[in-house]
């Protein structure tokens, strides 16, 4: 996994209490590594951050790439018996919401959240999330384009050129926001997530894993995390997995 940078209290990087952060120079995938560590007893709120990933994973079997040291590449482990009882998808929602709020705190730019958890600025992707479940815990990986982005995406540096931040600062703020969100009940969390979701009310196209496409207006997120899209024939589609595109008004 490369060279580790020691966790607090031995590191100069100070993290919120109750979070166990390890930073590595390089690894294949922080998600893969943290799932393995979780299987052998890694603590609740264990975090693995990498300066570079050689095999970063995105949703729907995509890859996630970033220049070394430029962006936040991190995975977080939540043990389900050490937190309020909540559905597993709410952990990914918390991580996405915390990233959006941390971006706002540090740069003044609040990304839009696209269902289920992608963050967009000017309709370009600035962050993506991939969660992996295992018995007793879930690992949520997130990549945020802080100082670099591929041509079709957006970075915080591009969106707010007069503001500067770092992956470490962004993660620090995220962890504090997650601490706040974890105090919410499952119902309160659902309400806050729905209010944060820019997809609702939008005309969307959803590309399903089957190859089918659903177009319509996103009207609701159900408590199980599924997106409800109402098409032009007034048929409601309940979508649990798919790639959403926000359609611009014609």
Write the SSE topology.
Blueprint: E1 4-5, E2 20-24, H1 30-39, E3 46-50, E4 72-79, H2 89-107, E5 112-114, E6 118-121, E7 124-134, E8 137-144, H3 156-159, H4 167-181, H5 186-196, E9 203-207, E10 213-221, E11 227-230, E12 236-239, E13 243-246
Parallel strand pairs: 2-3
Antiparallel strand pairs: 1-2, 3-4, 4-8, 5-6, 6-7, 7-8, 9-10, 9-13, 10-11, 11-12
Helix pairs in contact: 2-4, 2-5
Descriptive report:
The protein has helices at residues 30-39, 89-107, 156-159, 167-181, 186-196, and strands at residues 4-5, 20-24, 46-50, 72-79, 112-114, 118-121, 124-134, 137-144, 203-207, 213-221, 227-230, 236-239, 243-246. With 250 residues, it is of the alpha+beta class. The strands form two sheets. An eight-stranded mixed sheet has the order 1-2-3-4-8-7-6-5, sandwiched between helices. A five-stranded antiparallel sheet has the order 12-11-10-9-13, with no helix packed on it. Helix 2 crosses helix 4 (167-181). The chain starts with a strand and ends with a strand.
Summarize the structure.
With 250 residues, the chain is α+β, with helices and mostly antiparallel strands. The protein contains five helices and 13 strands.
């Amino acid at each position: 996994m490369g060279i580790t940078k020691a966790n607090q209290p031995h590191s100069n990087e100070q993290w919120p209490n109750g979070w166990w952060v390890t930073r590595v120079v390089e690894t294949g995938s922080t998600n893969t590594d943290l799932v393995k560590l979780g299987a052998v007893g890694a603590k609740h709120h264990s975090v693995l951050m990498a300066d570079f990933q050689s095999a970063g994973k995105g949703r729907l079997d995509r890859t996630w790439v970033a220049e070394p040291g430029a962006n936040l590449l991190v995975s977080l482990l939540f043990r389900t018996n050490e937190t309020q009882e909540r559905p597993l998808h709410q952990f990914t929602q918390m991580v996405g919401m915390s990233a959006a709020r941390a971006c706002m705190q540090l740069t003044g730019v609040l990304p839009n959240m696209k269902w289920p958890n992608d963050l967009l600025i000017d309709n370009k992707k600035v962050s993506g999330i991939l969660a992996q479940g295992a018995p007793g815990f879930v690992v949520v990986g997130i990549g945020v384009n802080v100082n670099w982005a591929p041509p079709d995406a957006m970075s915080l540096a591009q969106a707010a050129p007069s503001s500067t931040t770092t992956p470490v600062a962004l993660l620090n703020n995220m962890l504090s926001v997650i601490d706040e969100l974890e105090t919410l009940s499952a119902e309160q969390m659902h309400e806050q997530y729905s209010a944060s979701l820019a997809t609702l009310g939008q005309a969307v196209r959803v590309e399903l894993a089957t190859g089918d496409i659903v177009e319509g207006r996103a009207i609701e997120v159900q408590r199980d995390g599924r997106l409800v899209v109402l098409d032009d024939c007034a048929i409601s589609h309940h979508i649990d997995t798919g790639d959403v595109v926000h359609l611009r008004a014609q």
